[in-house]
Input
Amino acid sequence: MKNLIRVERARNNLTQAELAEKAGVARQTIIAIEAGKFVPSTILAFKIAHILNCKADEIFELEDKDWA
Output
């Protein structure tokens, strides 16, 4: 799954630590999501989208391999 968290976080002038705190997760979780190493739960994806003033489908996108 691809994501645009890093881009939207920059637009909102938030650090990884600030986003993590607002979302109620560890900074390492945000790092892993941004790197594509961790797929967030639906609830966390919606929380992150809300914090970044986006819709979840604007920052998370399925890749071809996700459909297999």
